[in-house]
């Protein structure tokens, strides 16, 4: 079995038939002439071969057991072996061919397989590419966002820069304006300096002339002084004659004075003793004392009308005709006037110094008959004045020694100087004023306070005026608020005196 080079499918089939014939020799030796089917599956194709079993092959095969018996049989066996070997060789070659064929046929399948593999790979690649593209798109979108933000920031920064540059421009303009003004001012200053220099020069010139004039005047004064000296000498000589006359005049005056003193010495001593001595008679007030002929100021004993109650009082026999009963006196601050109701009622202090006569006595006295009131005042500058009321009276203790005043005259104040008529008396322990406060405690003294009113002659006595002393010896309508007076005296006298 040798396949030809230019063998077609038919020759190949023929070869195959021979092959299969020979192959079948060993296995189906006893088979009769029977048709046999051979199926070959190659890929999608299947081939079917129908082969008749040749008879000579049968006979040959049937002869094999007979050959074993003799030497002819051995030669035949050798020939047959040779034939078989050849057949085997042919089969081998044929198998090689078949293999090649199968390989050729397989090539197409491999190509197909490769193509499908390539398709699959391409699809995968496309998928991967699509994924990559979508990722890239996402990244691009993000990048775009970031870019937009960056652009916004940049825009903002640019705007700020622009604003800054605008304000800088404004400042520069202002700076220029200011610089111009400074330059103008400098120019003005230069002009002024020039003027000043001119003026200074003029002044120097004037000063020179003035100095010259001064020198001339000085020489003139020297000359005049010399003349005055001469005149003074002449004057001294003339006045020495006058002084002799004056000395004689003085001596005459001295002798006259000594004569007058010796003449008046007797009666003066007599009146002094009257002042110090209490009078034996009973007097209701100082006016009565005065009328009885006691015209010296001093302490006298008074007796309340219709009673035996005696009260020591100081009588002022000099002021405005004399006969004044003194209710109060202050001039050195030696007595404390911040006292109780009872003390003001009975009186306190020393009659020869500072004192308060006593509300009870004054109340009873002024209810006996009509009295007038006089207040003497003096300040720290040497001025003095007075306030006088034509009618004055105090009600009883039950009415808090309420004051009544009428008919004002005087040089220090006006009708309401002492306060409103009808005010009650208050002390540090008896608040009868019209203030929610306690005026007596605030102004340190007993008085007819209003709320608290324009006067308080019983206030604190400071040494010296002490401006802004609001609790001092106060008389507003003469010295204003805060002024504390130097001395005070309150007198009463009968209206008919
Ligand atoms: Ca009060």
Write a concise keyword list for the protein shown above.
single chain; 497 residues; alpha+beta; Gamma Fibrinogen, Chain A, domain 1; 9-stranded antiparallel β-sheet; two-stranded antiparallel sheet; 13 strands; binds calcium ion
Instruction: Give the name of the CATH superfamily of the domain at 286-494.
Output: Gamma Fibrinogen, chain A, domain 1
Q: Span from first to last CA?
A: 200 Å
By DSSP (H or I, 4+ residues per run), the number of helices equals 8
| Low-pLDDT sequence parts | 1-8, 26-33, 58-68, 266-279
Secondary structural class: alpha+beta
CATH architecture of the domain at 286-494: Alpha-Beta Complex
> Which ligands appear in the coordinates?
calcium ion
- The rounded Rg comes to 81 Å
- Topology as H/E string? HEEHHHEEEHEEHEEEHEEHE
What is the CATH class of the domain at 286-494?
Alpha Beta
The main sheet comes to: 9 strands, antiparallel
Overall shape: elongated
Q: What name does CATH use for the topology of the domain at 286-494?
A: Gamma Fibrinogen, Chain A, domain 1
Helical proportion, percent range: 40-55%
List how many beta strands DSSP finds: 13
Beta-strand fraction estimate: 15-25%
> Overall mean pLDDT score?
83
């Amino acid at each position: 079995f040798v396949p030809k080079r230019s063998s077609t499918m038919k020759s190949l089939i023929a070869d195959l038939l021979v092959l299969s014939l020979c192959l079948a020799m060993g296995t189906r030796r006893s088979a009769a002439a029977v048709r046999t089917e051979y199926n070959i599956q190659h890929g999608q194709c299947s081939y079917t071969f129908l082969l008749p079993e040749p008879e000579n092959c049968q006979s040959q095969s049937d002869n094999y057991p007979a050959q074993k018996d003799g030497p002819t049989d051995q030669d035949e066996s050798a020939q047959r072996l040779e034939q078989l070997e050849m057949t085997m060789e042919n089969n081998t070659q044929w198998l090689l061919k078949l293999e090649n064929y199968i390989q050729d046929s397989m090539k197409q399948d491999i190509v197909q397989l490769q193509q499908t593999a390539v398709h699959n790979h391409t699809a995968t690649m496309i998928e991967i590419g699509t994924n990559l593209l979508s990722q890239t798109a996402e990244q691009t979108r993000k990048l775009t966002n970031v870019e937009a933000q960056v652009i916004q920031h940049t825009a903002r920064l640019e705007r700020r820069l622009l604003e800054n540059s605008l304000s800088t421009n404004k400042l520069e303009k202002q700076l220029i304006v200011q610089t111009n003004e400074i330059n103008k001012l400098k120019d003005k200053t230069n002009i002024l300096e020039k003027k000043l220099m001119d003026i200074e020069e003029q002044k120097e010139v004037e000063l020179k002339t003035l100095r010259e004039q001064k020198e001339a005047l000085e020489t003139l004064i020297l000359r005049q002084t010399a003349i005055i000296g001469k005149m003074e000498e002449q004057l001294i000589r003339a006045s020495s004659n006058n002084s002799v006359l004056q000395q004689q005049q003085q001596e005459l005056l001295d002798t006259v004075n000594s004569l007058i003193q010796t003449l008046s010495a007797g009666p003066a001593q007599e009146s002094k003793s009257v002042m110090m001595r209490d009078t034996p008679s009973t007097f209701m007030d100082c006016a009565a004392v005065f009328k009885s002929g006691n015209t010296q100021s001093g302490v006298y004993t008074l007796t309340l009308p219709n009673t035996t109650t005696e009260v020591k009082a100081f009588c002022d026999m000099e002021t405005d005709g004399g006969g004044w009963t003194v209710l109060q006196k202050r001039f050195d601050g030696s007595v404390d006037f911040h006292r109780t109701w009872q003390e003001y009622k009975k009186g306190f202090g020393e009659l020869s110094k500072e004192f308060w006569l006593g509300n009870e006595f004054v109340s009873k006295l002024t209810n006996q008959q009509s009295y007038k009131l006089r207040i003497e005042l003096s300040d720290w500058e040497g001025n003095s004045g007075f306030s006088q009321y034509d009618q004055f009276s105090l009600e009883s203790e039950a009415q808090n020694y309420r004051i009544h005043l009428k008919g004002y005259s005087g040089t220090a104040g006006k009708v309401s100087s002492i306060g409103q008529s009808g005010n009650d008396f208050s002390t540090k322990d008896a608040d009868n004023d019209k203030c929610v406060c306690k005026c007596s405690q605030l102004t340190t003294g007993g008085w007819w306070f209003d709320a608290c009113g324009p006067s308080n002659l019983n206030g604190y006595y400071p040494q010296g005026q002490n401006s802004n002393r609001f609790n001092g010896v106060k008389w507003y309508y003469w010295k204003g608020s805060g002024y504390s007076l130097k001395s005070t005296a309150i007198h009463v006298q009968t209206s008919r005196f």
